[in-house]
Amino acid sequence: MRLWNSKKVLLCLVWFATPFILKAQDDNTPYNIILSPNNINSLSPDTILLKKEDTTHRPTYDKRIHRYRRAWEALIPTHTKLQYAGGMGLLSWGIGWDYGKKGQWETDLLIGFIPRYSSQHFKMTITLKQNYIPWSIWLGDNFSLEPLTTGLYFNTVFSDDFWTSEPDRYPRGYYGFSTRIRTHIFLGQRIRFDVPERYRKFSRSITAFYELSTCDLYVVSAFNNSHLKPDDYLRLSFGLKFQIF
Description:
22% helix, alpha+beta, Porin, 11 strands, 2 domains, 40% strand
C-alpha cells in the first residue's frame, strides 16, 4: 500500500510539473518545486513552483550599484579608540577601521590635545596611525591576548611654533627635518574582552593596550648622543579600543 502511494505521488508530481519543465526548456528558465512543509511526502494545495533567481547575468547597472554601496560601507568606522600619551598629545580620541582576512590590520585617525605647559594656549594634534596584530591567543572566559602589536603613525601639531620648511632665521641645514610632522614607530601588547551578547549595548568587545614608542627625532638624538637613556627617547602610552562592528 505504501509503495502504491509513493508511485501515485511521483506520478502526480511529474504530471503537475510537466508544463513548467517544458516551459523551462523553451526559455532556459530554471524552477524550484516547493512542497508543503506540513507533509513533505505528498502534494497539497499550497505546493508551488518558484522561479530561480539568475545571479550570473545581472545587468551592468545592478553591478555598479552593488560596487557603489560596498565602497561606501567600507568607509563606516568599525571601532573607536582612546589613547593616553604616546607623542600625540596628553589625550587622543578617534575612529578606526579593521580589515584583513583575520582583522589583523587597523587604521586609526585620532585627534588629541596638549594642555598649557610652557605656552599660553593649548594645542590640538592629529594622528594617522597604522597597526598590525600578527596573532591572538584565546585565554578563555571571553578574554584574548594579543602578545604583539606593532606599527607606525604620523603626528602633527596645529601651531605656528612648528614648521614644515626650515625658517630663514636658521642656517641652511641646521635642523634638516620638519618640526611639524613627526614619524613614530611602536611595539605593544593587548588584552581583549568579548562582551557577551546579552550585555552588548555599544561595543562588541573592549581592548586594553599599552605601547612603547619613539619618533624620528628621538632616534637621531639617541644615535648622536650616547649620554641619553632609554627613558629619554622612549614613550609609554595606554589606551582602550571599543569594537563597534
